[in-house]
Amino acid sequence: MSKIVIIGGGFGGVRAALDLTHKLGTAAEITLIDRKNYHLFTPALYEVASAFGLTKDRFSVSLRKTVSIPYADIFEGTRVSLVQSDVSQVSLEQKTVTTRGDAVFPYDYLILALGSQSADFNIPGVREYAFQFKTIEDALMLNHQLTMLFERASRNEIELPIRIVVGGAGFTGVELASELACVARHLRKKFRLHNGAMVTLVEAGPKILPSISDTERKRIISRLTRLGVVIIQNGSIEHIAEGMAKLTSGRSMRYDLLAWTAGVRPHGLLPSIQGLELTPAGKVVVDEHLNTPRYESVFAVGDIVEFSDHKTQRPEPALAYIAVQHGKIVATNILRSLRGKELKNHIPFYSQWVAPVGGKYAVAHLGQGLTISGFLGWMIREIVDLKYFLSILSVGKAFRLLREEIEVFVRND
Taking the model in full, what pTM does it have? Predict the structure, then answer.
């Protein structure tokens, strides 16, 4: 029986585990190791950060349930073994994975699906003063801090408007800034303030969302502007102190809350894995099969992978559905390897995307020049979410999760 170990339960790791157990059945022993007991649905994290109108709950159970999908639900009825632990060591030569507590898991095939961490780009003050935005705890902390600021303003402890800065104008930054602008309006009414918040979105590059077309960018900028979001482009942050951020232009910005969405870096475990070839940015070098060059039994998926599109000569973007593609092709290639067949190439596909921009509004790029925005764009986003839930959960659980997500998050619309 072949032993397959998967480190990490993100989009790529979960997809690979499900496909492998469906394809191999009792012919393989599949183990997924993750420090958490749930799969984090990161596309909805910005909704958690901006959720409004919920009954106070010390442990934020209702919010956590909307984005934290238990592995027990995902792998119910499968032969996937779950190990909740941190990985302390990986030996590619001995083909073993060791977890905290010195439990050792030998493997015939290894899938690295470790995901990424927030990157501060060595900018002073980011770690100390900016709110990171990568985990459920980050989003909950941001939500709590925003409410606290409005409470303090109602007691005249801080000046209005409350200054909110979002550093980084990729998809995550745009989604977060627009939704924070929406929830700020609700909080202003709740606390009966004459003024609310000023949300500023800061992008280091010459334009926000550089990978999309100018027409689509104009739609998103128009929507952000209507929501009251101030956009600063060519605004690289060089230093953050308490209550103050300084740009490379020399401009200084006061803030009451600063959320950091400027980028991510590969998982910190990777450099400790001897024999694993990494790029200067710390990502895993893979071939067209998502194999590591020196070890045919080792694959990598998701954010940690450096894979260039041969057509554009540009790296694939770090998107959830691309990690799912990785998981599918790796599962297929392990099956082919076991059967002595030629491995399949990974063919990048990332011409579709949906960008929520506050409330029931989204811009959906469906490819071939078709872009839909507004409420219908938001509906497309919900359909995309449901499609993903159906791919990893039973029909009943998938629809229940979507319903809970909508019931919780539309309060901010």
Answer: 0.93
